[in-house]
Amino acid sequence: MRIVNMGEWPLGPEDERRHAPGGEPLWNESWYYDFVSEDGRAGGYVRLGLYPAWGRAWYWACLVTADGDRVEVIDHEAALPRGDLAVAGPGYTAAHATTDPFERAHIRLSSAELSLDLEFRTAGGAYGYALTPRYEVPCEVTGTIGGLPFRGHGERDHSWGVRDWWSISWLWSSARLDDGTYLHGMRANVGMELPWPAFLAAKGDLAHVEGFGAATVFDGDRPVESVLRFPGCVTTVRPVAFAPVTLTSPEGVAARFARALCAYETEDGRTGHGWTEWHQPPGWREHVW
């Protein structure tokens, strides 16, 4: 299994486990699990975020369809898990496990609104960021949703460190194209251009690409279209179904985490589906996407 590590720290199997928390108030550790059906008409995501300084965890699970259906479980007051990554709250229980480091992960959710039992099997390798302790893993996804068989694709990631939801806006996107290529790109609005994290994984061969850029058209606060500029793979992204979350800081400041199941189309005619997020903290329009 190929590991492409752009950071200055070695990325090893131990990083699939929890990390010792930092002392900063905004230090967090999170796990994402994105998934899309093979036909692109349904998809969802799960996020578990641990906030030791706040003494609680955030748990999100969302499922959307191209027909406009959306179900979700959102809990910003979950108790911090102890040894494992199991959390529970009003009306739900959830568990997350890496069953084989960098190869397989498993998530479960049981609630009245939504039930998930999904396995994420690595398809192409793992990609470590250079900007922050974080890695992304493109995956094949199988299991059940609401007791019905599910087969599709997606991406999971794991990060740890300080994350300020209320001062920095960003775009993050991942997808699988119809020829089997996985793509991923991210850029934050920090007042300067940087070597942004980006990869293409064709036929299982994941490789970092230089020069990633992105531009978005908005209708008010609603993203309408983004153009992702991968070298040799310019891709247009259009939202199919939104599953946003509102994030409120301990001081009462609100940010809008706009996330959507999206359709992707490259300049050479390939198509696909995945997830894109356009994070919108207060004053986000003062920055250039």
From TrEMBL:
Residues covered by the DUF7065 domain: 12-163
Top-level taxonomic group: Bacteria
UniProt cross-references to InterPro entries, sorted A to Z: DUF7064, DUF7065
Domain DUF7064: 165-282
Name of the featured protein: AttH domain-containing protein
Organism for this UniProt entry: [Actinomadura] parvosata subsp. kistnae
